[in-house]
Fold these 2 entries.
Entry 1:
Amino acid sequence: MEEYNKEQLAQIQAGKDANLDISWYENPEFTWGQMMEIRKGLESDVDVSLYAKHNFTSEQMYQIREGLEKGLDVSIYAKPEFEDMQMFEIRSGLEKGLNVKIYADPNIDDFKMLLIKSALIEGLNISNINFKDLTHEEIKTEFRERKERKNNDTLDNYKDKEFSAGQLKEIDLGLFEKLDVSWYANPEFNNLRMFQIRLGLEEGLDVSWYAKQEFNANQMNLILIGLKNNLDVSCYANKDFSKAQMAEILDGLWIGLNVRLYSNPEFDEFQMEQIRLGLEKELDVSSYLNPGISWEEMAKIRLNLNRKVKNGK
């Protein structure tokens, strides 16, 4: 018989008492702390398969479980190469709607992550810094200098550049609000795109998600709406999605659907709509979850599935 210590046996018994599937952790190679985190995940009905592994410490398991319980995309940090405090900084950023991909790197230590997270919350433009090559003090100095430049910036610094009157107006409005206009003070952004970035900065959002040349003003607006409503914009903040595709994914997020099933650029917006409509009716959309099926055929399959459900078949 395999040998367990009393703490491990207590976790196994607690799982039995709660009618949980203790096979996930009934293994003496798991410490009692690991067992406890798996048990708590089972009690919360989260996908423990993402962390019920020997190469995660109990502290790492805790960070992954917390993320799962809060509906976060833990795949960004559920990796053994991240230390538990790095996981915490990434999870904390996800909770705040930040673009954590900027610092979700095992080579960036947790204190650097904290500094980067704080700068993103403050709205500083830090998208062009190689953090791995800088010390903690160098990062703090760089952020301090950028903050000073932001606070001392004036419109005169932009009048001699190739900006239209509409673009200069957006820069002037941003400066008046003490925003870091370096996010959008670029002649390649037209005034409509500048407006969307300025709105995000005024709302205190992490505009690094969409302050990019690859997005037009309409796409930016849809990402801004998602951020403003604490939705997981990582599902559609992708240059490969059109405005219409983004809108379909956003509609699904609004009502809590598993949009990952159709957030694929290979589905056009009409196919996405049919999948979304099926999910709204809690249908098994797997039978038409294929980009090779036309949206018209998808509609037929969906309506047929809906009839079968109504008829109790």
Entry 2:
Amino acid sequence: MEFSDGFRIAGIIARHLAGNATEQENAALQAWIDESPDNRKTFENITNRAQNVCHDQMSGSISPMETMRKIDAKYRVHLRRRRLRVAIPAAAAALLAGVVLLLRGGPDGMPADTGIYAQEQPVILILDDGRQITMGDTDAKLAIGDGLEVIMDDEGIRYAMDGGSRNVPQYNTVKVAGANVCRLQLPDGSIAVLNAGSELKYPVPFPAGGRQVWLSGEAWFEVVHDERATPFTVRFGGGSLKVLGTSFNVSAYPGRSVHRATLIEGSVECSIDGSRTVLTPGLQAVYDNVAGTLTATEADTRAATAWLRGQFMFDNEPLADIMDALARWYGVEVVFTDTVMPQRVFSLEVNRYDSMNRILELLEETGRLTWSQSGRRITISAI
């Protein structure tokens, strides 16, 4: 039987390492491992690396972001000329729940499955002159003029410059579609990791007067403190965040009921529609797009950065926002049959490389909704 979607094995490996795979899943995984020496070696590498990463994080020797860099840079290999990307999320407890294997085009021989799985979409870089470059299976280095080069490889996107002065910057945009993330090293050395359905516009290089980027969607930032103490500003919708050197997450998808900025390290000044608040580590700025209010609250930093670990985490979130996130990741259409259900709140913590059907079943077990599937269209009704 043909295994048409490689993401299914991600969930099987994750549950196998977490110790909660079913007998059928373990049998399917063993069949895949026995299929070829390459499959066996790949699985052994993932298992060994998962154990090492778990140990490092339990001991506090590396951060979740460092884990992401190590795995993303090291574990991209070719199997039958097909690219594998392996991302092992941070260990939240003693189990390795959340280890993920992303397969671009799965191997043959696995059982067929009618479930909805994430389908990785490409990352696109749009240059100042309008050219569009799609990140692919091969590394790329491209001269973009004025002594600038853009490099796209296993480490993400970054730039090389000859050190000369430039009065007029070029503006580039990175777009990340569904079921993907992208690590971008900005011209000043700051890091931005973009979540699915996000785009970031930025100048190359940053002009002397300031460092500004424009975000639609969600991104994690690690901002470096430059010698001139130049503020770094993230603009999104009607708001902005101004920092010097810090680590924070911004979630500002168009159409969402709230926008959030969560601070992990440093200090952030958040301004939206004339309101202003200053965040210290562990706080979150929440802007209610309906009420037009900006408040600072204690943050659940683990939930805010769950996507960096390959998870969905929702804490008393409206179902409309939960479905918006799932639809973006899985590439589906979600339809509600009434106006009450979208406003009901739910809490949920799941691996986002599981099937969407599995997530919907968990929601259905609350006894508050029912759902049906027709292809990649999901219909949800209240009970």
